[in-house]
Every structure is written in structure tokens, then in C-alpha cells.
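Quiz preparation item.
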């Protein structure tokens, strides 16, 4: 397996578990934790990214009804981020180091992908005689996610999840800077209880305030998934207790039943029924639990490790570029060939960008700092 990892471009840092496996003492008393990367977690991320690609590419095809059941698959991404984000907090780093590490990992290559999408859009509008003024504003605001708050579109529809990720890591970094790192589990529980109360109780005059909170802090919309990741982390490394399991059950319940909140940014139930959403949320939670506890080792193979290695790039570039610019060029093909060709082409593009831009960029930034 080590040869597989090396062959797919995993660095020594990755193999030692620096990114998703804790390698330093906990901030709370606990049993020692081995510095070991959870390969099932990486492969889960790769599989999830690939499924999201299939969901987006199936729109307007005969395959849409089947792949639409995964419309809420981003929840699995958020569970992973909750788990990984809390891993980084466990060593009690200084807030500036935490912010810097997350910024370097997420933002520079995101800027590359936004710029690539912008250039394609710009070229298209120029050749069709369309004004590019609004596009320029959208591009500049997309770089900082301010487009969301200004009511402007994301250049690629998947970027909304990056906004959520940035808000999550900003929240954890802020708690660290305030010296509240040890209180994250309790603060997260308070947020879950807030979601529970605003779901069950009539809000009356507070309804407008609640919707504004969801609008301007959309992390709260999907907080149950992020908090579940944090709880999975505590259960794995610190052990279970009644309170922790009850909080996980509550997070799962809110991920299912507070789905109306998602209308603010990701209206899942316009694509799938409540029943399907409940079943798939159960699948995501169970799959994640099994993956971090090494109960499904068969998901670790060359194909899933490959997908894991390109997952970030594939997720960022597939939707707008694939559907907007590649699909029209192959629309003359039969539908099955279009679907396969579109998917494979984006995998190839992601592979090339990962190896020619993302990894060299990360290495250059790390060496420079």
C-alpha cells in the first residue's frame, strides 16, 4: 500500500498523517493517538468528489434520476472537513499558524481555478459580443467570496461549498485566538440546540432574524454535518460517552429534519424527496463511521487513491468548465458517450492541473514560508 501511495504522488507528510491524522498531543487528556493517515478517509473524499461530478454531468440525461439521489452528497464533504478541521485544533496550535495552514491549502489553488473559469467565460463573452463589465465584478468578488454577500453569482456553482469551508475554518481559528479551543465541542452543541429549537418552535417575530442569520452565516445551514465530523473525531480518539453519542444522534437528526434551512443556499429537497434525503443522510453517516474505523478497507485501492489525489482540483473545475465549455463540443456524440467522455476529460484535466499547478504551487508557498 505504501508503494501505491507513493506512486500516486502522496508526499512524506501525507503518509505520516500530518493532514488528517493527529501527530501531536491532544489538548485534552486522552489515550495516545498513532500518527497514521486514515487512507479510507482520503478515499472517501475522492469517491465523494467523483460522485458529485457524476451528479452534475447527469443533469439533462437519462441518468439524472439515478444520480440525483446523491444531491446532498456535499454533506459527506462537510463531515470530513469537521473531522479534519478538529484534528488540526487538537494540537492546540497558535491561531496565526492555523489560519495560515488552512489558507495555503485552500485558497491559492482556488484562485487559480476561479481565474481559469473567468478566462473561459471572458473569451466566450468577447467572441459573442457580450459586455464583460459584470463578469469582471463577479470575478473579483468571487476571489474573496464577497459575491455571495453582494448577491452576485458564483462563477461556478460549486464554489458555495468553499465559502462554507472558509467560514468553518475561520470560526475554528477565531475560537483558537480567543483561547476557546477546548470549548469547541460545547459551542458546537449550543449551535445544534439552536437549530433544533428554530426547527421545532414557531419563531414569530424572530423568523426574520433567523433567516438573516442563515443568510449571512450560511455555515449554520450545514452545521450538523460539520459538527458530526467533530464528534466522530472525539469518539474515535477520545472514546464515547452518553452525551457525545446523543449529540451525534441530534446532529444526524438535524441534518435530516432541518433540511428546510438549506433553502437559503442549497435547496436539496427541490431535487430529491425528504424520504430519499433521510436515507442518503443515514448512508453518509454510516459510511463515514465505517471508513474512519477501518471497517471498509476495500475502498482503498489504486482507483480511489487516484481520485483522492486529484479530488480538490476535480471538484473545483468540473462543473462550469465541463458543462459549459466541454459538453457543447461533444454534443454530437450519443448520450452515453457524452457522459463518459465528459467525465473522463475532466478527470484528465484535473490530473494535469494537480500535477502541473496545484502541487508545485503548494510546494513553492511552503518553501517560501
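Solution:
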Amino acid at each position: 500500500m505504501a508503494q501505491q501511495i507513493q506512486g500516486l504522488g502522496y508526499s512524506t507528510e501525507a503518509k505520516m498523517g500530518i493532514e488528517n491524522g493527529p501527530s501531536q498531543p491532544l489538548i485534552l487528556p486522552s489515550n495516545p493517538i498513532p500518527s497514521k493517515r486514515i487512507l479510507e478517509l482520503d478515499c472517501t473524499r475522492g469517491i465523494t468528489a467523483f460522485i458529485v461530478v457524476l451528479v452534475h454531468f447527469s443533469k439533462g440525461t437519462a441518468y439524472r434520476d439515478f444520480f440525483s439521489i446523491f444531491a446532498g452528497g456535499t454533506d459527506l464533504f462537510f463531515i470530513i472537513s469537521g473531522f479534519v478541521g478538529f484534528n488540526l485544533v487538537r494540537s492546540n496550535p497558535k491561531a496565526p499558524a492555523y489560519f495560515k495552514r488552512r489558507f495555503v491549502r485552500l485558497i491559492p489553488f482556488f484562485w487559480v481555478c476561479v481565474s481559469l473559469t473567468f478566462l473561459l467565460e471572458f473569451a466566450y463573452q468577447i467572441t459573442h459580443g457580450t459586455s464583460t463589465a459584470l463578469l469582471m465584478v463577479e470575478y473579483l468578488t468571487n476571489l474573496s467570496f464577497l459575491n455571495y454577500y453582494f448577491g452576485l453569482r458564483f462563477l461556478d456553482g460549486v464554489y458555495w461549498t468553499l465559502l462554507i469551508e472558509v467560514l468553518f475554518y475561520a470560526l475554528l481559528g477565531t475560537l483558537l485566538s480567543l483561547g476557546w479551543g477546548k470549548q469547541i465541542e460545547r459551542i458546537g452543541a449550543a449551535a445544534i440546540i439552536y437549530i433544533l429549537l428554530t426547527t421545532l418552535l414557531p419563531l414569530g417575530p424572530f423568523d426574520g432574524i433567523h433567516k438573516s442569520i442563515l443568510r449571512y452565516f450560511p455555515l449554520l445551514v450545514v452545521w450538523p454535518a460539520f459538527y458530526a465530523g467533530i464528534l466522530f473525531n472525539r469518539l474515535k480518539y477520545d472514546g464515547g460517552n452518553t452525551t457525545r453519542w446523543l449529540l451525534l444522534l441530534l446532529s444526524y437528526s438535524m441534518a435530516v429534519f432541518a433540511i428546510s434551512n438549506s433553502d437559503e443556499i442549497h435547496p436539496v429537497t427541490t431535487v430529491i424527496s425528504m424520504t430519499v434525503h433521510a436515507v442518503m443522510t443515514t448512508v453518509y453517516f454510516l459510511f463515514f463511521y465505517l471508513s474512519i474505523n477501518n471497517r471498509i478497507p476495500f475502498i482503498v485501492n489504486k482507483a480511489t487513491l487516484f481520485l483522492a489525489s486529484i479530488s480538490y482540483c476535480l471538484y473545483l473545475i468540473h462543473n462550469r468548465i465541463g458543462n459549459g465549455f466541454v459538453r457543447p463540443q461533444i454534443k454530437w456524440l450519443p448520450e452515453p458517450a457524452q457522459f463518459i467522455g465528459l467525465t473522463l476529460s475532466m478527470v484528465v484535466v484535473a490530473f494535469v492541473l494537480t500535477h502541473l499547478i496545484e502541487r508545485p504551487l503548494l510546494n513553492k508557498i511552503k518553501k517560501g514560508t
